[in-house]
């Protein structure tokens, strides 16, 4: 079999594997609050999230096109197939490591940093599409800050609306609301995160000369959405434990506020075709909600560890991807 065909098949397999891992790694964030407040039992929450992720994934393609052309130029990428394969291997390795230790690290940061690192190893810093890459970095940096503010505002609004309600009545009503907010959260996750895998596969197809436009083919959309949904169905209970309980003690009203705040930020980014980290956005929204409730109620020590992981992910996985590229380049 032609070497190029083998490489392309490997890329598709690893890309779908990344999407599958992303499903049980990142989707845990989307349902963490509803599980921790007992609005939904874990199995029900996971299965609902799997379905909503699939629907969200096949609905939009704007973020996928941004991944295809904004990090590197797919039509000028030197040894593109090996670059993308190296990036996928590095991103998958990083996701598995952080998942094992229960650290809510970002799959988005991992794959974007990995593509950049492998491309630099292959063709130097000039291989990056700086205008697009900077735009993506800005979205990744500012979206958690916006989510933090949104979480604070939504929780403050809830406090005014529910000021005279009894605790028992509030909890019962909000738990019902949380079923809807968790579903919305999972849907928005699919609209943004699954798009990244679609973009990677399309980037590979262009790099090997099998596609001449950045259009996302239907088989790519369906396969990526299916991989994300299957991964979600496996669940991510380690991450649920961290996001749903270690940042702050979450009550139903806190969970609903965090879900609404983060879903609005993620979906807003999807509409303007920008990839964001659902992990960062959801964790930041929870911190914002906690700050509106009581600043000392947020476990800032855990929050600092999460933020530190955010900072080190891109350079670390970029270096790992560069090493992977140099090794793969010996064989391909």
Automatic annotation (TrEMBL):
<keyword id="KW-0472">Membrane</keyword>
<feature type="transmembrane region" description="Helical">
    <location>
        <begin position="252"/>
        <end position="272"/>
    </location>
</feature>
<dbReference type="GO" id="GO:0005315">
    <property type="term" value="F:phosphate transmembrane transporter activity"/>
</dbReference>
<protein>
    <submittedName>
        <fullName>Inorganic phosphate transporter</fullName>
    </submittedName>
</protein>
<feature type="transmembrane region" description="Helical">
    <location>
        <begin position="140"/>
        <end position="162"/>
    </location>
</feature>
<feature type="transmembrane region" description="Helical">
    <location>
        <begin position="76"/>
        <end position="97"/>
    </location>
</feature>
<feature type="transmembrane region" description="Helical">
    <location>
        <begin position="46"/>
        <end position="64"/>
    </location>
</feature>
<dbReference type="Pfam" id="PF01384">
    <property type="entry name" value="PHO4"/>
</dbReference>
<feature type="transmembrane region" description="Helical">
    <location>
        <begin position="307"/>
        <end position="328"/>
    </location>
</feature>
<dbReference type="GO" id="GO:0035435">
    <property type="term" value="P:phosphate ion transmembrane transport"/>
</dbReference>
<dbReference type="InterPro" id="IPR001204">
    <property type="entry name" value="Phos_transporter"/>
</dbReference>
<dbReference type="GO" id="GO:0016020">
    <property type="term" value="C:membrane"/>
</dbReference>
<keyword id="KW-0813">Transport</keyword>
<feature type="transmembrane region" description="Helical">
    <location>
        <begin position="109"/>
        <end position="128"/>
    </location>
</feature>
<keyword id="KW-1133">Transmembrane helix</keyword>
<keyword id="KW-0812">Transmembrane</keyword>
<feature type="transmembrane region" description="Helical">
    <location>
        <begin position="218"/>
        <end position="240"/>
    </location>
</feature>
């Amino acid at each position: 079999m032609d070497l190029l065909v083998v490489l392309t098949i490997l890329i598709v397999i690893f890309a779908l594997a990344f999407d599958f891992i992303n499903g049980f790694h990142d989707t845990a964030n989307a349902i963490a609050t509803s599980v921790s407040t007992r609005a939904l039992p874990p199995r029900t929450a996971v299965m609902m999230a799997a379905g909503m992720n699939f629907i969200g994934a096949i609905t939009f393609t704007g973020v996928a096109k941004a991944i295809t052309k904004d990090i590197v130029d797919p039509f000028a990428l030197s040894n593109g197939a090996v670059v993308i394969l190296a990036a996928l291997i590095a991103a998958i390795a990083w996701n598995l490591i952080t998942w094992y230790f229960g650290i809510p690290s970002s799959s988005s940061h991992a794959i974007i940093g990995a593509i950049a690192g492998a491309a630099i190893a292959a063709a130097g810093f000039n291989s990056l599409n700086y205008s697009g890459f900077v735009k993506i970095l800005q979205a990744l940096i500012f979206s958690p800050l916006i989510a933090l503010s949104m979480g604070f505002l939504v929780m403050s609004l809830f406090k005014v609306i529910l000021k005279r309600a009894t605790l028992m009545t509030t909890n019962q009503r909000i738990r019902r609301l949380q079923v809807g907010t968790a579903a919305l959260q999972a849907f928005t996750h699919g609209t943004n995160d699954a798009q990244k895998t679609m973009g990677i596969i399309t980037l590979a197809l262009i790099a090997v000369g099998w596609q001449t436009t950045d259009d996302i083919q239907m088989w790519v959309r369906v396969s990526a959405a299916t991989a994300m949904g299957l991964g979600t169905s496996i669940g991510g209970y380690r991450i649920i434990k961290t996001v749903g309980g270690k940042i702050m003690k979450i009550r139903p009203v806190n969970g609903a506020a965090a879900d609404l705040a983060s879903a609005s930020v993620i979906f807003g980014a999807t509409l303007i075709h920008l990839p964001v980290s659902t992990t960062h956005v959801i964790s930041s929204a929870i911190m914002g909600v906690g700050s509106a409730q009581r600043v000392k109620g947020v476990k800032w020590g855990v929050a600092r560890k999460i933020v530190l992981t955010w900072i080190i992910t891109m350079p670390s996985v970029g270096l790992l991807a560069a090493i992977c590229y140099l090794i793969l380049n010996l064989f391909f």
